[in-house]
Amino acid sequence: MNQYDVAIIGSGPGGYVAAIRCAQLGMKTAIIEKYSTLGGTCLNVGCIPSKALLDSSHHYEDAVKHFEEHGIDIPGEIKVNLEQMIARKQGVVDQTTKGVQFLMDKNKIEVFEGVGSFKDATHVNIKKNDGKTETIEAKNIIIATGSKPSTLPFIKIDKERVITSTEALKLKEVPKHLIVIGGGVIGLELGQVYKRLGAEVTVVEYMDRIIPGMDGALSKELTKVLKKQKMKFALSHKVKSVERKGDKVTVKADDKKGKEVVFEGDYCLVSVGRRPYTDGLNLEAAGVKVDERGKIAVDDHLKTNVDNIYAIGDVIKGAMLAHKAEEEGSFVAEQLAGQKPHIDYNLIPGVVYTWPEVAAVGKTEEELKEAGIAYKVGQFPMRALGRARASMDIDGFVKILADETTDEVLGVHMIGARCADLITEGVTAMEFRASAEDIARMSHAHPTYAEAVKEAALAATEDRALHV
Question: Tens of pLDDT along 69-82?
Fold first, then answer.
């Protein structure tokens, strides 16, 4: 029987990063993956392919709507080649997953393909595709099996017309009318992809605003911008049925007054969140406990109730984000090596990769009000930047929340071009407990989108913004 210091079940961002870090720290490491490619949801049917389609559809929209204004004339009709778009997306996925395999080989991590399940607290059975089972032994085991799309009890996902994000990444045609159930990150991103390509898109959301977990000002601005892009929204609508007849999908919902509203389309994307995926792990054999939501219960060290078994990423509490899982993977590996790592969950940024992009870190205004913390606000519009006008990306703003007394930055919220990258400035500042004035006194290159961060910090510091 093969014996290891660490065995990791699941090869998504959390799992494969944990494996690399364990190997770097001198541990004999194995990783178990049920699919034929490594990388989990993120690399195969999540973050990476969705960004590939977002970028391709953005290029198409620019060509149709903006090239002429930039002085670029294209003779003839500009057409969408969806088959090629999907093929390019798959090429990006293939290249990225092969990169993870390279990293496993480089770090001498043994990869097992098959479904991993606990035999007991130190042994994992691996059921392979040929039906054979192999058992390995490990001193420590990390569960990193991620999540799967959630649905509603009355919805039948047929993977053809009533679909999840997985199927939305490989459609063979552009929908005529895509109904998106759920106004969160995934629904908005994929909704924007198909809106750009010519679909009518209607987002049906149970809450009274989209991206409800983010700062209210971001939700309001993104709604305004997406409406300008002709996306439709039905907020405060409770979906009660989804039925398919042939190529037609009918969604029925009650609005906030209880009145029934009917939506008809040819595709329905169910995007109501994700659930922890622990199916088939046989957690009972190892004695690992889950909470009432099906998440694996862990302590502050990410240890389960079983002393040598850890869990990270989407299967435990907290935001379901690839980069959060990566931090947790390194965290567990370093603990096993006797180090004292630390994660500040308040400083895990959140991003929506629509265009404009939306990004945030730290506390929202709503959270500060609820906690009774006195704060001040500095906000600066993207349209006031020379760089934004030069690229025609004038929607959005940067908002900085700082402590009323100490000036320490408590939250950074932004919507605009390249905010997915800009938010790291906020994370860095807050990791070092910077004040708004600290950011305001840093030199920012001109002309850049990042100048909006400096200006928002100036606005939070005695209302000193220079360019408004």
Answer: 999 999 999 999 99
